[in-house]
Amino acid sequence: MKMDKTIAGQPLAGPETAPAVAEIRGVTRTFGSARALDSISLTVRKGEILGLIGRSGAGKSTLIRCLNGLERPDSGSIRIEGQEITDLSDRALQPLRRRIGMVFQHFNLLSAKTVIDNVALPLKIAGVAPAERRRRALELLDLVGLAARADAYPSALSGGQKQRVGIARALSANPALLLSDEATSALDPETTHSILDLIRDINRNLGLTVLLITHEMDVVRSIAGRVAVIDRGRIVEEGAVADVFARPVHAVTQSLLAGIRPQLPAFLLGRLGVNGTGPAVFSVDAVGADAGRDFARLFGETLGAPVHLVHGGIDHIGDQPVGRFFFRAEADRLAILARAESLGPAIHVEFLGHEPGSR
Ligand SMILES: Nc1ncnc2c1ncn2[C@@H]1O[C@H](COP(=O)(O)OP(=O)(O)OP(=O)(O)O)[C@@H](O)[C@H]1O
Questions:
Q1: How many domains does the chain have?
Q2: Chain centroid to CA 221
Q3: Does the global pTM surpass 0.90?
Q4: Torsion region of 10: left, alpha or beta (phi above 0 gives left; psi -120 to 50 gives alpha)
Q5: Could you report the predicted ipTM of this complex, rounded to two decimals?
Q6: Function of this protein (predicted)?
Q7: 10 and 89 housed in the same domain
Q8: Boundary (domain end) residue, out of 257, 289, 314
Q9: Could you report the per-residue pLDDT of 76-94, keeping only the tens digit for each?
Q10: How far, in Å, from the CA of 39 to the mean position of ligand 1?
Q11: Same structural domain, 66 and 206
């Protein structure tokens, strides 16, 4: 699988070689007989937005808790900015915890404190003087567009505004890594959009590294540069978002992405049979410049029969066009696959079956 050359749509000099902000190696954590993490390895690199997706119970929360030191792995290594954290005492962990800013699904703001006091709280805990805390908190509230609400209480804010405060608070201690745990799952689509824009702006303008844990594939598609798929405590697939979304290999990834990738309409899929005698139906997946090729013509001229588009189109993920098409043609499987092979390995073709009928 091709490595990504962009992060959040921004070209970077070799992100795959950027220094690791968080490095998880062979981490296992069991609860009784439940193996929440099973020798998991994952690297989050400086300046990237990495999406971590997985089904319920896959191990996402346990991984977050291990990363921020709330949970101790049974074995394996976790390094934050090069420092091993698994063998640190709770006291020694405190300054490292501040290197990780957390954003939560339900915001976790203190309702008895004003917006500015919520944002300044991590600074207070870190022993920063009151005037400096206020200055820094106001600066962050300005960054998230809420300076005018500094003295309001959280109950007076909308969900999106609360999350902006949550983000400002997470940034207050100047974290090396922003851990976003389902940060938009409780928000409506429009507010989700504005919060994702904010996270992307912070990533681009401040160079902040983000680990985005979510079950919403649209979130990953909108702002992540890379994606890792966790299942049963292991990373089962990892790569540039455009590549993984264009051609998910693992069954879990395919199932997670089923809702946002074009699928052959069920009524048509149900009609197909491997040994049918009617027109053949096949899919074509291609990324980048290949996505825009005229596949109907490319297949048609070799098959000697018209090729009709049944379903699909071109999506854009980051700066990459991702094409997924379903075609119908009066041809047989071998002829389709022979043509597919001549187009090269970058274009993925799958024969799906024949419709009933006579040829
Ligand atoms: N404290 C615990 N005690 C017992 N089992 C646990 C504990 N924490 C997690 N588990 C188990 O470990 C597995 C992974 O759980 P985890 O909460 O990390 O998954 P998740 O991907 O975050 O799920 P969700 O998306 O539903 O929050 C599950 O089988 C869960 O039941």
A1: 2
A2: 6
A3: no
A4: beta
A5: 0.96
A6: Part of the ABC transporter FtsEX involved in cellular division. Important for assembly or stability of the septal ring.
A7: yes
A8: 257
A9: 999 999 999 999 998 999 8
A10: 16
A11: yes
